[in-house]
Specification:
alpha/beta; homodimer; Quinone Oxidoreductase, Chain A, domain 1; Rossmann fold; 24% helix
Chain lengths: 340, 340
């Protein structure tokens, strides 16, 4: 059987199990030109929640009744397309399901297996998350040696890489995270200069001022809202604020990503002649090799560490996605639904 | 006598007469190195209100008890400094007062009188406002022919120039203003392609969509808040939002410029890979000649029109400043306090 999670109702606020339906359908029979992929790992990312909105985001909206959109890894187990050979490992939009019928028009690419590097890294440092950190920091923010970088969701799939790349580039790096364990990890294992547990400080602005005595030159934002506001209070002249994500508002009850606690101090951008800039990794796919080779080299030089939080079972997909927003995960969250 | 408006209390919300004191003091006796300037015109700008905050903005805070900070034009009527000759016309931070004691360390520059160009234009198109429009649009937003520019406070001292420069550069230009008269003026006299009276539309977002059928490539923002939010709803891929001012929040009751109605859709910057960038004209003073010569040429070619709203009497300074925020002015607001 092919189990498929389908979206049957647009979530308002945190997604509920009743917003989805886990259907069991026969394993599809292939038509000419198609290949069958056994989905093995699903990447669980905050952006999954954006894709459930009725309004288009940066891609068209997911349709009601359709298989829930999701990135993942899998193996071609059957093929009626000479260009997609049986046994090929693939990465792409495979969906929350056991089997994906793949055509050349889908969003996917074959995976190059790299000796000594776990396959899961393709859903992390040498995949889209690595590219996101690499280009978001180096291309959008352009850090200079000695500058101060603040990053939110700093123990997360992207934030943890941003901080490590920032250290490689000779910057002071401060991370914001939500548990003592995450703060310990980024500071003691990843080499961040300082870490702030935003849940434990009485004033985040004061904590940032203390951890960034020379102010903030780059704020790499994964969170938005009032944490963005606190960071804006401390930006330096010509600071660059990279909008990589705004997870604090993805589950707002309005169901459209409208931030109900937006930063009230955008005037600081004027005072400091600073910019707030959004970016998407998909604009950098043509430069993927540059990022992936850099990440691989840094990994082999022992300069990049990464942590996965792997949950098992397709049946747990909705709850696993929700873990991203409560902060009850450690590192890059993956749903393993079959062995590779 | 030298009448001087002094700040005696920080305004909360709209400035009150009781926040100021109009003192009468003797005309100062000059020390060596000083010059005495008869202040003739004061430039009334939204930024005057920012300067009254307790917190520093882009310059240090104005002190309580001090003469209210203000830009203006005047004439040197006495001098004990060979470098500041009697009869020189000057522009600078002269303050809300009849006479300013000028030293070489103050912020000022001598004015070049240009035949055929009224002196007031130095407080407009060929002064800081012209430079603000010129560099904010051309240097920060870099418009390309055929792009759509939306500008708020479009009939104002800066906005009216932004739109005209945008037309010169071959863009579609749409302005947002607050009265039918302002909309008529920018559309029929200044050549804007369309004008939106934000006070008369039921949905500003819909009105923007209608006036900008190809979306917004550049939003030149003088207003902030919910008008910024409406504009963000319609930005195109790689749009540039120039933060020139955010007058909608300058009079918030918090007294610090915090926006109590900030845009809730900053996620649109991510979706559209767009940027929001603050700038200050003072960063461009070294390129003043480029802007001033361009504005003069365009004026002489009949491509730039400008309108002044001139109020008389130093005693009216606080109320005149407040006119900027009710929209009860037409064009660049100037307080004339003496004949030149």
């Amino acid at each position: 059987m092919n189990r498929q999670w389908r979206l049957i109702r647009r979530p308002l606020g945190i997604a509920q199990l009743t917003d989805f339906d886990l259907a069991e359908t026969p394993i599809p029979v292939l038509q000419n030109g198609e290949a069958l992929v056994r989905v093995e790992m699903l990447s669980m990312d905050p952006t999954n929640r954006l894709w459930l909105y009725e309004q288009p985001t940066y891609i068209p909206s997911q349709g009601l009744g359709e298989v829930v959109r999701g990135l993942g890894l899998g193996t071609v187990v059957d093929s009626k397309n000479d260009a997609i050979k049986k046994g090929t490992k693939v990465f792409g939009l495979l969906g929350w399901q056991d089997y994906k019928v793949l055509t050349p028009n889908d969003f996917w690419s074959p995976l190059v297996e790299i000796p000594g590097v776990p396959q899961s890294w393709h859903l992390g440092p040498i995949g889209m998350h690595g590219m996101t950190a690499y280009f978001g920091l180096l291309d959008i923010a352009k850090p200079q040696q000695g500058e101060t970088i603040l990053v939110s969701a700093a123990a997360g799939a992207v934030g943890s890489l941003v901080g490590q790349i920032g250290k490689i580039r000779g910057c002071r790096v401060v991370g914001i995270a939500g548990t003592p364990e995450k703060c310990d990890w980024i500071k003691n294992d990843l080499g961040f200069d300082d870490a702030i547990n935003y849940r434990e400080v009485t004033s985040l602005t004061d904590a940032i001022a203390k951890a960034c005595p020379n102010g903030i030159d780059i704020y790499f934002d994964n969170v938005g809202g009032r944490i963005l506001e606190a960071a804006l209070e401390r930006i330096n002249l010509h600071a660059r604020v990279v909008v990589c994500g705004m997870i604090s508002c993805y589950n707002e009850s309005s169901g459209d990503g409208y931030d109900l606690h937006p930063p009230r101090n955008l005037l600081r951008l004027l005072y400091q002649r600073a910019r707030l800039e959004g970016f998407l990794v998909s604009d950098y796919f043509h430069r993927a090799e540059e990022a992936v080779m850099s990440m691989l080299n840094w990994y082999q030089e022992g300069k990049i560490q990464y942590k996965f939080d792997i949950v098992s079972g397709l049946e747990n997909a909705p709850e696993t996605m929700n873990k991203l927003f409560t902060g009850n995960h450690q590192g890059k969250l993956i749903l393993q639904i079959a062995n590779s």
